[in-house]
UniProtKB/TrEMBL annotation:
This is EamA-like transporter family protein. Residues 11-139, 155-291 form the EamA domain. Gene3D superfamilies: 1.10.3730.20. It is found in: Membrane. It comes from the Bacteria. It comes from Neolewinella xylanilytica.
Amino acid sequence: MQRLPTVRDFLTLLGLSLIWGTSYILIKWGLEVFSARQIAVLRLGISALALAPFAITHLRRIRVRQLPVLVLVGLTGTAIPSFLFPIAQTRLSSSLTGMLSSLTPLCTFLVAWLIFRNRPARNQVVGIAVGLAGAVLLAYVAPGGGEQTNQLVYAALVLGACLCYGTSANLVGNCFQRLPSLTITVVSFFLVGLPALVYAVTFGGIPETVGEAGARGWEALGYVTLLAVGSTVLASFVFFRLIQGTGAVFASTVSYLIPVVALMWGLVDGEAFALLQLPAIALVLIGIFLSKRN
C-alpha cells in the first residue's frame, strides 16, 4: 500500500540520486585502464555474480513463455546501455553524459507513443519536444576535445541508451503487470549478465589488462565493481522498493537530481563547463516536468 513520502523516503531518494549520479564518473575512471567493451562485460558479469544467490528462487516464478521477453527486457534495460554509455564517454565528459541521461523519462513516453501506441497528452508531446531540443543544445555547446558535430554523434549513443531504458520500462508495463518487480529485475539482469561473466573471464582479456596495469588495474576494477554492485544491483532494489512504498511519481523525481550529481562530480574531477549549458539543462528539466504533469 502506497503512502505519503516520509523523511526517510526523501533521504532514500537523495541516496539513490547520489548512487546513480556517481555511475558516470566511475565509468570515466574505469576507462583509464579498460576498454568500453571490457567495462560493459565486467559490469554485466559482476551484476550477475551479485544476483546469483537470488536467481534460483526468482527463476522458479517465471514461465517458459515469459523468458524471451525477459531477455529482451534485460538487453534493453541493462546490456545494451552498458555498452553505449562507456562508448559515449570515450568522447564525452562524464558530467555531460549524466546530464543527457535525464532524457530517460522523455524516451519512455516516446517509446510508449511510437511503438506501443499509447496516445500521449498534449503536454507530454510538448515536453518531449522541449526536452530533446534541450539535449541537442546541451551536447552542442558543451566543451570537449572534439568538434560539436562529433559530440552530437556520441550524444546520440546516450539517447540510444535512454531509448533502450524506455523500451524496457514499456515492456515491463505492458507484459509483466502481475509479476513482482524484484523478480523482473533479478531474472532479466541475470539472464544477460551470465554470458557476459563467462566472456569476461575467458575471452575478454580482462585478467591480462589488470595484470599489465598493476595497481591502477586493480583500482579501475574496484571502480567498475562499485558501478555494477552499487549503480546496477543495489540502486535497482532501492528504486523498486521506493516505487512500491511511495508510488512511481515520487520515485521518478530522481531524474531531476541525477544530472546535478553528475555535474558536481565532473566539476570536482576538473571537467569544463560552459555557461550556455545552463539554459540547455533548464530546457531538459522543463521537458521532463511537462511530460509528467497530469
